[in-house]
Amino acid sequence: MRLIIAIEAQGRKDPDKRSSWAYYLAHLYAKFRYPPVLLVVCRDKGTAEWAAEPICIGLEKHPSLAVFPLVLGPHNVPMITDAARAADDP
Questions:
Q1: Distance separating alpha carbons of residues 72 and 45, to the nearest angstrom
Q2: Residue 16 CB: number of other CB atoms within 10 A?
Q3: CA dihedral 25, 27, 33, 35 (to 10 degrees)
Q4: 89 — alpha (psi -120 to 50), left (phi > 0) or beta?
Q5: 26 near 57, Cβ under 8 Å?
Q6: Which of 4, 55, 2, 69 is nearest to 31 (CA)?
Q7: How far is 86 from 40, CA to CA, in rounded Å?
Q8: What pLDDT, on a 0 to 100 scale, did the predictor assign at position 24?
Q9: Considering the entire predicted model, what is its pTM?
Q10: Quick one: CA torsion of 63, 67, 73, 75, rounded to 10 degrees?
Q11: What is the pLDDT of residues 24-42, one digit of tens each?
């Protein structure tokens, strides 16, 4: 299976980003015709929870486009402090 992963580092809540993310994914799909996945990497739980909220564009009961970001943050990725462990499982 081929896909495109758009990776975004997000340091804080930014309402303008949500429309940008929808644009990125729609553009990538239109250009390459592969399923795009948005991966957002966050440093804090609050930003990660905000980033994980679905983005629905269109009518409330009939969205034309829905984006469900895949989010990595401190709440769902364990901190690795041992260099040997990190080297064994990047």
A1: 9
A2: 7
A3: 0
A4: beta
A5: no
A6: 4
A7: 21
A8: 96
A9: 0.86
A10: 40
A11: 999 999 999 999 999 999 9
